[in-house]
Amino acid sequence: MKNINSFLLFSIVYISFILLFNQTMGRKAIPGGMVPYLIIALPIVLASMGFYWLMNYIAYKKGPVKKILDTALEFEQAEVFKIKKNDNQFDPKEFLKGVKRLATILNQAWCENKMDLVRNMVSAGIYNRFRIQLDLMLKDKTKNIMADWVLSRLNIRSVEVDEVYETIHLELTAYARDANITTGLSPEEEKNIIENTPQTYYSEIWSFVRKKGLKTEQGKFLLSGNCPNCGGDISGKGQLSKCGYCGSIVNSGEFDWVLAEITQHEEWRPNLSSGSIDLSEFQASNGLVSRQIIEDRASVLFWRWIQAGYFNSRTYLSRETEKERLDTIALNHSGVHDVAVGAVDLNGCQMESGKIKAEVLILWSGADTNLSESLHREHYLTLAIQPSSNSKNGLSGNSCPNCGAPLPESDSLNCDYCSAEVPAITDDWLLSSIREKN
To answer: What is the pLDDT along the chain (438 residues), one digit of tens a residue?
Structure first.
C-alpha cells in the first residue's frame, strides 16, 4: 500500500509538471484540454510503476532487507538512575551487551530446539514456554526457521522497583526471515522456502528481574556466563540452574538479572507492575508473593495446560495443580495449534479458604484444526499457594532440589538428570482453575 501511494503521488506530480511547463512556455492548448496530457503521461507512469514494482518484488523475495553490522545499545538516563542510585556500579551498556549475548544464544536454542542452552539464564516461565512450544511443533511435524536474523536495537525503556524486585523493561528490535515448514523436507526444499520468505521486522519487550538491593559485582554477571554468587564459570551448563561450585540457584533472581518475561510490543503496558496491585499483606510472610514470580508461574502453568490438552492427559498438570482440583480442569482445547502468548498480567491477589489466591490474565492466540488463521484468546488462571510455602528457587521454580534441573515431564518421582527424589506436588504456586474470559 505504501508503494502504491508513492506512485499515485508521483503520477499527480508528473502530470502537474507537464501542465505547468506548457503554461510557462506559452504554448497553445492542445485541442481536447487535459485529455492529451493524460494520454501522454499515462504510459510513462504505468511503465515506471511496473518497473518499480518488479524491483520491489525482487527485493521483497530475495532480501535480506537489513544487514546490521552492530546492535544499537540505548537507554533512558532517568530510568537507569532508578537502579544506579542504589547500585552505582551498574553499567547499562555492559548490561545490554549481556542481553545481546543472551538473545543470540536464545535464538540459536530456538532454531536448534536446544532450550537447555539457556535454562540457567532465564526464568522457569521462559524456559518452559519455548521448550513446550517446540515439542508440540515437532509432534505436528512442523519446525520454525529463522534465517538472516539480525539484532537491530536494544533500548532500556523503563525501570520499576517494588518492595521485593527491580525490573528492567527493554525493547528488542530484530529482523529475520521467519517461516514454519514441514519437517522431512530436503535441504534444497528448505532453502527454496526460506529464500522466498521476506526478512521482516519484529519488536518485543524483554523484562529482566533481580532481587531489590543487589549490587553489581565485576566477574559475577550471569548474562556473561558466570555464577552471580561466586563468579564460577557456568557457560555450557545451561540445563542445570544450580552452580556446581557454590550450590546457588543462579537463575532465581536472588543474585542477578534474569530474563523473566517476553511481551509482544503491542500488548505491553508500561509501568504496570509498580504500585498497581498491593501485595504487601502477603509478602511479609511469603517470599513467593510477588508480581514477577506469580506471572512467571502462570506462564508455566498455561503451557502445561496447552500440553495437557494436546495429549488429552492431565499427567502434565498433576505435579503443579491442586490435587482436589485436577479433575475439574477442562481439556477442551485439544485441536488448538500455533499457540503464541502475547502477555501475562496479574489481576489481583486475596486470601481464600486459608490459601493465597492470585488471578492472572493470559492474552494468547491459537488456531483450531479447522481454521487457517489464529484467533485472539483470553483466559484467567487462578493460582493458589499455602501461606507457609516459601521456596528459595525464586524465578527458577519447579527445579530438582538436588541439581537444579527441570522437574520430569511425567509424574515420575525421580529427577531425569541426577535420579534424586523429587516431590509429587510442588511446594509452590499451584493451578486452581482456568476459565475463558467472557
So the answer is: 444 444 455 555 555 555 555 555 555 555 555 556 556 656 665 666 666 556 555 544 555 456 666 899 999 999 999 999 999 999 999 999 999 999 999 999 999 999 989 999 999 899 999 999 999 999 889 999 999 999 999 999 999 998 889 999 999 999 999 999 999 999 999 999 999 999 999 999 999 999 999 999 999 999 999 999 999 998 877 677 889 899 999 999 999 999 999 998 888 877 554 456 888 888 877 888 899 999 999 999 999 999 999 999 999 999 999 999 999 999 988 778 888 898 899 999 999 989 999 999 999 998 877 666 678 899 999 999 998 887 777 888 777 878 777 788 777 888 888 888 888 898 899 999 999 988
Structure-block grid coordinates of residue 92: 547499562
How many CB atoms lie under 10 A from the CB of residue 390?
14
Residue 436: exposure state from Cβ atoms within 10 A (0-12, 13-18, ≥19)? exposed
Residue written as grid cell 501475562? 344
* Secondary structure (3-state) at 32: coil
Surface-to-core class of residue 122, CB atoms within 10 Å of its CB (0-12 exposed, 13-18 middle, 19+ buried)? buried
C-alpha cell at 260: 523473566
- How many Cα neighbours within 13 Å face the side chain of 79? 17
CB neighbourhood size of 51 (10 A): 10
Q: Which of 272, 332, 302 is nearest to 433 (CA)?
A: 302
Q: Retrieve residue 137's grid coordinates.
A: 511443533
Closest by Cα among 239, 434, 250, 212 to 333: 434
Instruction: Identify the CA nearest to 362 among candidates 413, 410, 313, 433.
Output: 433
Say which amino acid occupies 299.
Answer: S
State the amino acid at position 411 in one-letter form. D
Q: How many other CB atoms are there within 10 angstroms of residue 66's CB atom?
A: 14
Residue 169 near residue 159, CB atoms below 8 Å: yes
Cis ω before 36 (30° cut-off from 0) = no
User: In 10 A of CB 155, how many CB atoms?
Assistant: 16
